[in-house]
Amino acid sequence: MSILFLDGTVIDGDGRLTERGAVLVEGDRIAAAGPSATLEARRRDPEVSTVDLGGRTVMPGLIDTHIHLAGGDFAPDQQGASIGLAALRTAQVATRTLMAGVTTVRVAGSRDYLDVDLRDAIREGTVTGPRVLASGRGITTTGGHYHTYCAVEADGVDGVRREVRAQLKRGVDSIKLMLSPGVATKGADVNSEQFSLEEVQVAVYEAHKVGRPVLTHAIGIGGIRNGVAAGVDSIDHGHYLDEEQARLMKQKGIYWVPTLSPMYFYLKVRQAEPWRIARAEAVQAVHDRAFRMALDLGVPIAMGCDCGGQSRMPNGANALELALMVDRGMSPMQAIVTATRESATLTRLIDTVGTIAPGKLADLIVVDGNPVDDITLLQSAVKMVVQGGVVRRNDLARA
């Protein structure tokens, strides 16, 4: 069965918008897209199921390049859960994420390689969830960020090389490096570094030589500097990003994944422990300045919300990140592109997903309204989710 989306606003993920547009899906792929008048005749095909959008918007599914879902949403009293219970909670939030319109995710560190197993379970149809790029256990220094939960400790060039190879053996899609302490690293200076340049370089070499990208936890300028010099694929968080490193990132094509949402949850929702909130308050202003500077300089930016972490941001609330980007100066269309084309480019999936174009996988969402007019609609008005041509959610049938 083919699906024809007709008479809606089409946002293609590449920065273009078509009013009274249409998208034709055949099997798991996008077959055609354009003005509704050019595809109207396909409505009469008995093998085509027509979705009359009635002015709603169809656009690519969102891609989140930095999430945590292993073990479910973060809760302090659940960190010691058995692996079986943690796996069930992982599957639960994966399904929730997909139903929110996020069709692809990159997991930025996971206990017990639960993200690797989740990826495989989704591929075989055991679990319904987004397409998963797994990073396994993040790699940190002895006593470093997240060493008690979802990261493994490694020290020295040989130690880091050995751990990267072990992660690759387990089947990860990317390598996660903890380059600095975090807001959630009690007692450590946020603006400091963990791994040396030589340690980061060997990790990047080992990953890149077998075609795996490297993402980071990098808040302090020392960690950012080491990551940029070593050629990581993304600087994630990047609170203390300065102009020198921003210009180098633009020159090298290194993406920034600013993860604005945890700061919102720390400082607006304020559900975390007082010491975490205090640490967030100390870095909020510098993070905002870095975002505005990077946007002005044209640093490539991809969407990652860091949900499921210790800020208590739940999985499924991912699209808040886009509203926070708009609050800080992005246009709504720019923000949408960060979560479609740019995130697909960063994750090396641009030939497969991220934009509406013939031949690409039919990962699509239908939104009641136009998110270019109101970016918050991506948080509240997703009515249909299609993943690889399969309808995963359809609230339009009940409208």
List the helices and strands and how they pair.
Layout: E1 2-11, E2 17-26, E3 29-35, H1 36-39, E4 48-52, E5 57-60, E6 62-67, H2 83-99, E7 102-107, H3 114-123, E8 131-133, E9 138-140, E10 151-153, H4 156-170, E11 175-178, H5 197-208, E12 214-217, H6 221-230, E13 234-236, H7 243-252, E14 255-257, H8 261-269, H9 274-297, H10 320-327, H11 332-346, E15 364-367, H12 377-380, E16 382-387, E17 390-394
Parallel strand pairs: 1-4, 1-5, 6-7, 7-8, 9-10, 11-12, 13-14
Antiparallel strand pairs: 1-2, 2-3, 5-15, 15-16, 16-17
Helix pairs in contact: 4-5, 5-6, 7-9, 10-11
Average the pLDDT over all residues and give the rounded result: 95
Shape: globular
Corresponding CATH superfamily of the largest domain: Metal-dependent hydrolases
CATH-scheme architecture of the largest domain:
Alpha-Beta Barrel
CATH fold call of the largest domain:
TIM Barrel
State the share of residues found in helices, binned by percent. Answer: 25-40%
Major β-sheet profile: 8 strands, mixed
What is the number of E strands?
17
Q: Runs with pLDDT <50, length 5+?
A: none
Q: Terminal Cα separation, in Å?
A: 22 Å
Task: Give the total of domains.
Answer: 2
Radius of gyration: 21 Å
Structural class: alpha/beta
Could you spell the SSE succession in H and E letters?
A: EEEHEEEHEHEEEHEHEHEHEHHHHEHEE
Strand content: 15-25%
In the CATH scheme, the class of the largest domain would be Alpha Beta
Query: What is the overall number of helices?
Result: 12
What oligomeric state is this? single chain
